[in-house]
Amino acid sequence: MTRPSLTHLSPDATPADIVAVLRADGALIIDDAMAPRMLHRLRDEIMPYVRATPVGMDDFTGRRTTRTGALAARSAACRELILDPRLTGACEAFLLPFADRYQLHLTQLIRIMDGQGVQPLHRDRLAWGGWLRPDIEPQLNTIWAVTDFTEANGATRVVPGSNRWEETRVPDESEIGFAEMRAGSVLVYSGSVIHGGGANVSGADRCGLNITYCLGWLRQEENQYLACPPEVAKDFAPELRDLLGYAMGSYALGYFTPPLPPGEGPEVVPPEWLFSGRAEAWGDGLYDRVAARAAEGAM
């Protein structure tokens, strides 16, 4: 059987290169996107947590699969990958037509162990049920290969082009490809493309780092405020804190009132106030962008 293959881009791919393939096919691979030294650091930092993680409790999460989260808090290497300019640039082009800001949706190390069967095929956008309009793309997702990905060890199954299909269309086996790639490469895919973990019959683990971004007005799958509370996030770069959600999602999304005694603090502040103590950071220019979009009839 001839199966479809995914487009492979070189490490110097630009955000424009990535988005062009993403819009057409829904998925692509950037080969050798992570330097070997970074890959070694990542493994050293996250594998102790992975080895301590129990397997899933159902067929979707995987009874021979572990899923380790809170990796922005646990791994400095993961924090660097979250801010990879190729991918944040792609997020800007791919997601900002639908929102004023994008945010971090999920960090998770997925370890598919020997004996795990195929995961049911699905679209990640269904995390929000069926409530989003089909023409709104809510996510840009990545799976960084921490080990080699092969068909035998459970490489992600992907249906190229299914991001443009009708919701009810079901792929047949000839339309399902495999995201085979070397360790250090990254699979980039949209929330609308059909995919699922493969079966592992290799005798060894397959590990992939799932970092996902979504529109700033949507609820995140991984609660970043609890995974990375202010006492942890205070030491992060400001741009990473913004991605975690410590920033206004739009002009009036995300403000709070500090829990202080009467008269001892401002009444309404943006999330950045937690780290700067300054209330004038309101909106980070979002009001001007929202007003401009309204004037253009986009709202």
TrEMBL record:
InterPro entries: Phytyl_CoA_dOase-like. It holds the Pfam family PhyH. The keyword tRNA processing does not apply. GO terms for molecular function: 2-oxoglutarate-dependent dioxygenase activity; iron ion binding. Keywords: Dioxygenase, Oxidoreductase. The keyword Oxidoreductase applies. This is Phytanoyl-CoA dioxygenase family protein. It comes from Sandaracinobacteroides saxicola.
